[in-house]
Amino acid sequence: MQEQQSPKKVHSGRGQHLIALVCFFLSGFAGLVYEVVWIRQASLIFGSTTFAVSAVLAVFFLGLACGAYLFGRVGQWTRRPLKLFARIEIALGVFALMSPYVFDLTDIFYGEVYRALGERTALLFLVRLILVGFVVFLPTFLMGGTLPLFCRQYVFEDGKIARSVGLLYGVNTLGAALGCAAAGFVLLPELGMRGAILVGAALNIFGGLAVAALPISREEVPETISSEERDDPHRGVFVLFFAVGFVALGSEVLWTRYLGLLIPNTVYTYTLTLSVVLVGLVLGSVLASWFSDRSTARAFYFGALQMLTGLMVLGLMMLPPATWRGLGGDLWIYFLLLLPPSILGGASFPLAVRMVVEDVSEASRATGGMVAVNTVGGVLGSLLIGFVGLPFLGLEKSVFFVTGANLAIGFAAWMGLDRRRWRIFKLAVVGVSLLVWFGIPRFSGTRIPADFLGEGRDLVALREGYGTNMTVVRRNRELQLEMDRWWQGSDRKTHQVMAAHVPMLLHPDPREVLVVGVGTGQTASRFLMYPIDRLACVDIEPMLFSFIRTHFESEWMDDRRVRLIRADGRNYLRHTDAIYDIISLELGEVSRPGVAFFYTTDFYREARERLRPEGFVVQFVPLRFLTEELLRGVVRSFLDVFPQSILWYNTSELMMIGTRGERFTVDLSRLAERLLQEQVHQDLKYSHWGGRDHWLHHPQVFLGGYLMGPSGLANLGAEGALYRDDRPVLDYAVGEGFQDSANELPVLQVMVDYLEPVAALLEAEPVLEAAIAEIREKNLREMAARVFLRQAMDLISAGDHRRIAALCSEALRRHPDYLEAHRMLADALMQLGAFEKAGDHYSVVLEMNPEDGRALDGRAVTLHRLGRLE
């Protein structure tokens, strides 16, 4: 039988204990710096798929759980917990400093395993777990021991157990919240991954040395009188707290997916989400710790918090889209969605600990055990919700499951742990809660994610994948594919086809091709129009290929030359041993997390290794996401690896094409011959902005896409920054102000100074050169005009036809031959009742392209409205 000890007063000065608490705060700060950096670093090695990131988080939290459990028991018997904490901190700093080099070793080993296993997803996931564990398990194991050790030192009064544990948890978690924010907003963009690790390691080592120097004596630690460990009578609390962890981390997975419906997902999303959640945990823990010791109804409050959390989460996530839009800012969405349930979750911790800890001699062991079971539950919850709930049940049913689990936990706590009678009252409250839980979705009528993804649009189909929401939307008789509301392609021919045609027409003899990012398959299908031997198509969303088959032309997938690969494209290129003639990167939305990884010199070196001697890499340059400074950096980084490169017009999504060869040259006779091939010739009866006179199968129109070669690009990128994996400058720059609606205008002014004549690329007759120069001038005008046309498109759903007409007129002022601007202006004028003018613009469209269906319909309607029935 373990004897209860007498509480002892703390003798050391307050300053010494303040130093210890500051070091404990810094420990939490450093821990989240490591988490943010290690997730990013592991994504480069193992891929940024949902599976890869989940493997990192699973090992990270599993290490924390094991450390909390073991050090909780070790701390129970030590008389110098802070000395042990100091050693842990120093060891953590050393391991952190070693982690980048250990990641390099795992990269080498993983590459060998990847090539050996191929596409055996389950085995690769297991290998990732093992290798990630090799890097991060030991340091996270040490991190897990810090809270139990501080509880051993500072929980010394039986009447203030919850207050002490709650405040300690709050101090450490507040440090974690600030560490997360600092890593995501400052350290990574300013210092890079290795610099951030260095800061975290310095804090750990400094904190360890500072605590080791504190003269806190053994007498200040409560004495454990008996070594006999008694049976734990509170196993029910541990079981419920395991379930709380399951629900809490499962909810975070759902929140992340839900936020993508409200806010464009950028590199800041993860940082903001985690920071707000951690702040909520701090507030809840501190608030609950002040009354948990005095209360005799801890189990009752614990159960009430769980039920309230479930109802609150369900109520918030079932709010209609218009309510969220009315908040007026993205930060308000983060705080409203994440902060209230996080506060309730944080309040559960001191209550649960106080239900288990009856005297101070139990504090270290019980706190460590509670953290361990809660964390293990969280790992299981995040994996099951991420890999089973979302892809197979969907977001809405997963929300019902998680929030229902909250109600079940609360009910179980009331009936199993709360000794107060009030059975009828409890049953009544549970009954009312269930009625509210069932009533919320019926009262709100909101369907998630359908109502968010289809708001104001014709939603044809929706599929919730492992990492993204895929939708098919109908616009003007056209089906468009979107992923998390980002446009990916269409069932009509778009500029995407040129990402295949341009390199295939310019390359001497392409046989092996890789496409990264499939979209609707427009680029991939065009590669198959040429006599290639093999086409590999890689996409990060495993469910995309089957989704395309259902809604878009997909015969190309059945071609014997095609291989479909469900993987992170960069990860595939990093570790495959395949060699290609052309690598086409269909990744233009630089603000999406992970895409900027494809714009670094480190990636380009990896891609170069996968090319044959005359091979091409084709990279999109999306001007709407780039400022002048960013454009210069993108160009310089590309030229650092591919000095022989050209820049090609492709609407506002330009293409850089780099060759591994010694010089970029084009054979004009070979180009003309390929343009006459039947399939290619028919497919290039297409213009970016004009009619039949500007179809791209005309050599002068095709070559009018040439903007500049190695010399012009070198001058353009001379003052740009080199983008590296270690320091994610591009991610953060586009995350701050991505998709500026007028970025192209100032960037175009800069580009014009570096244009080169087509003579730098090939020898042509003067007449042909003049025709090419004229087309190029119109191409540049199109990029400027498209800025206003895109703004007009954004107003269609609002029905602001007068403003649409004004924007289309401005587009035509800049480019009078812009077919799409004429058509859209005609549509707007017809809505405004100006049928005569609308008919004139429809007539211009039909002069350019007599087969334009929308213009034929529009012209007929205007004639009818004008009474010209003949």
Tags for this entry?
870 residues; alpha/beta; eight-stranded mixed beta sheet; four-stranded antiparallel beta sheet; 32 helices; 12 strands; 8% strand; globular; disordered N terminus
Structural overview:
This protein is of the alpha/beta class. Helix content is 63%, strand content 8%. The chain contains 32 helices and 12 strands. An 8-stranded mixed β-sheet has the order 7-6-5-8-9-11-10-12, with helices on both faces. The protein is globular, with a radius of gyration of 31 Å. Mean pLDDT is 88; it is low at 1-11 and 225-231.
> Which structural category do the helix and sheet elements fall into?
alpha/beta
Please work out how many helical segments DSSP would assign: 32
Q: Give helix % range.
A: 55-70%
Principal-axes geometry comes out as globular
Total strands: 12
DSSP strand content: 5-15%
End-to-end C-alpha gap: 106 Å
- Describe the main β-sheet briefly: 8 strands, mixed
**Poorly predicted tracts of residues:** 1-11, 225-231
Radius of gyration: 31 Å
Strand order of the largest sheet: 7-6-5-8-9-11-10-12
Chain-averaged pLDDT: 88
SSE layout:
Layout: H1 14-46, H2 50-77, H3 81-117, H4 121-144, H5 146-154, H6 161-212, H7 235-262, H8 267-292, H9 298-317, H10 321-325, H11 330-356, H12 363-393, H13 395-416, H14 423-444, H15 450-453, E1 458-464, E2 469-475, E3 478-483, E4 486-490, H16 498-506, E5 512-516, H17 522-527, E6 534-539, H18 544-551, E7 562-566, H19 569-575, E8 580-585, H20 601-609, E9 611-622, H21 628-641, E10 645-648, E11 653-659, H22 668-675, H23 678-683, H24 699-703, E12 706-708, H25 710-716, H26 729-737, H27 744-752, H28 766-794, H29 801-814, H30 819-831, H31 835-848, H32 853-865
Parallel strand pairs: 5-6, 5-8, 6-7, 8-9
Antiparallel strand pairs: 1-2, 2-3, 3-4, 9-11, 10-11, 10-12
Helix pairs in contact: 1-2, 1-3, 1-4, 1-6, 2-4, 2-5, 2-12, 3-4, 3-5, 3-6, 5-6, 5-12, 6-8, 6-11, 7-11, 7-12, 7-13, 8-11, 9-11, 9-13, 9-14, 12-13, 13-14, 20-21, 21-25, 28-29, 29-30, 30-31, 30-32, 31-32
